[in-house]
Amino acid sequence: MNGQHTDGLVGALVGGRYEVQSLLGTGGMATVYLAMDTILRRRVALKVLHPHLGRDRSFAERFEREAIAAAQLSHPHVVSMLDRGEDNGVLYLVMEYVPGRTLRELLDETGPLAPKQALALIDAVVDGLAAAHASGIIHRDVKPANVLLADDGRVKVGDFGLARSLASANVTDTLFGTAEYISPEMLTGTVVDSRADLYSAGIMLFEMLTGRPPFTGDDRGQIAYRRVSEDVPPPSALAPGLAPELDELVGWMTRRDPDGRPPSALALLSEIRDIRRSLSDAQLDYLPPAARGHEAPTEHLASLSRPAPAGTEILATGGPGHTSVMPRPPAPPPLTPREQRRQDKEADRAARFAAARPTHQLGRGNPRRRGALWLVIVVVLAVLAAAVGWFFGFGPGALATVPPVKNLTVAQAQALFQQAGLAFTTHDVFDDAISSGLVVSSVPDAGTQVRKFEGVQVMVSKGPELFPLADLTSKSLPDARTALSDAKMVLGPVTEAFSDTAPAGVVVAQNPAAGTPLKHGSTVSLTVSKGPQPIPVPKVVGLKQSDAVAALQAAGFRPVIDDATVFDRNVPAGSVSVQSPAAGQNATKGSTITLTLSKGPRMVHVPSFVGQQVSVAQDALQKLGFTVKVENILGGFFGTVRAQDPVDRDVPEGSTITLTVV
């Protein structure tokens, strides 16, 4: 690591790749920096663990396993894990950089949010948690500080994988979660599953609606004790006027017993969206002025969340005066908020009919008149009882079972509803799995008993929602992959092809084409450039300059003439003596081929060796680069040079010198 692991890491190069630009924040377990990926030229968030954690080998191994698991997550509402590594003994994570602010900062600035905003934010958080849970990852530290709100409106949950590694290590409580949001089972040491994240999300929704978490204080131990021993109060206790459905939703998410919470993030997500559809605009936009900045006394919250004492039921049995204590029946399975609302509606209706019964006795008077009055009362009560019996037994108040209509046409569904005596209304919705015109679901669900006058809502598919595919050409492969992930599309096969116009690594083609309407989850294949295709360089040595230039240009190369020239006994002056790269080597089209021209052979002066011994003359001439030819007269008995041709003049290097020897 090119620098120290301190807050002064700014300017260092981590992992030989990530150039640290500025400090983003410091926590109990890591320091987060804004860094530049010098290879892909993009900004990233670099989380560097404190050195004392990295020195624990078992922790480092768990940390690496969890980082790899978190890297498998690809979801629009989850911060992407891009890389992880170790530099000079220090562990670090590289994550997607999300410019903006956290939900913690938003709540600190604005106080409570309108239900419309709170439900939209919790929808995105739970959607991201559902993807994580499907991949076997439990966050374990869901809180506003880990929810990132991008400047472009995206909502992302951060710190996936890291929280689970820390929860499995023997470290301080800072690493197990935050006291205000942690689930009771994490405090008591019992088995923790994905429902712990849903509890924390419920606490976060409470704070978004009211401006503060339900359990606060300076003593973390006291906060933890109250979380285990007390129920979370309804948000309307701090923000009167909130819709009852919001109280029910928060109560369902924050049950102390995990079995009382939503069974999965997907089930919770469905309920959140159902509530958003059912609330009126006034309920969604409601924001009590007194709730902003309001701090209710801790004792008030405690009294609201204190459960009623359990009791026993005394029933008369046997003879007079004899009683026995019967145990209370086992608690029924927890109701969803939608089922609870239906049960409350039935109780309301029963109370209204009970209120219609007479509650006062008639005074004493004329017996005959009193008898007539009693007769009238009996008749009226009989008629009323008959009417009530008909209403609830055979009329609009009778129970009917919602028929199964999924994947049926509206006409087929109508026939089944007529047989059941139920009325229904239709609502068009997008659905990726069910064809257009077929029923997606009903509200209430099939098999549910409802009063005939209540009616049923039927969701009819409009088919998958289609989105125009973005133009991915001219993007690098990593940027194209990110764009597909953000658009909820799937990267298909990636092929490579030579391109004379696009640099290597850039997308040159896509299938389907840009602008094609596609549903989420569609596969898109890409063709990526390998750069220009290399071709062999033609041989131009020995050609005249003009001919060599023309030949190279015709092959797609750019010839350049070297300023220097060289002597060449084999190439005439003005022709190519040397080319670089050499003939036969591969080079890309458009690349430069350097040509060095010949000055012709070097001229060398031939000295006279007449009268000297042939051996001396022959050796001297060869050293000057000449070829020596010896012609003997009378057998060359004396070995003396009698004649020489040429002699005492300049000739081209390598010329032949003839010696006549006697």
**Beta-strand residue percentage:** 15-25%
Number of strands: 31
How helical, in percent, are the residues? 25-40%
End-to-end C-alpha gap: 83 Å
CATH topology of the largest domain: Transferase(Phosphotransferase), domain 1
- What integer is the average pLDDT? 81
Query: What order do the strands of the largest sheet run in, or round the barrel if closed?
Result: 1-2-3-4-6-5
Question: What is the topology?
Answer:
Blueprint: E1 13-14, E2 18-26, E3 30-37, E4 42-49, H1 51-54, H2 57-71, E5 81-87, E6 90-96, E7 100-102, H3 103-110, H4 115-134, E8 147-150, E9 155-157, H5 162-168, H6 184-188, H7 195-210, H8 220-229, H9 244-253, H10 265-278, H11 281-285, H12 298-305, E10 313-316, E11 323-326, H13 337-354, H14 367-393, E12 399-401, H15 410-420, E13 424-429, E14 439-443, E15 449-451, E16 456-461, E17 466-468, H16 477-486, E18 490-497, E19 507-511, E20 517-519, E21 523-529, E22 534-536, H17 545-554, E23 558-566, E24 576-580, E25 586-588, E26 592-598, E27 603-606, H18 614-623, E28 627-632, E29 641-645, E30 649-652, E31 656-661
Parallel strand pairs: 13-16, 18-21, 23-26, 28-31
Antiparallel strand pairs: 1-2, 2-3, 3-4, 4-6, 5-6, 7-8, 8-9, 10-11, 12-15, 14-16, 17-20, 19-21, 22-25, 24-26, 27-30, 29-31
Helix pairs in contact: 2-5, 4-7, 4-10, 7-9, 9-10, 9-13
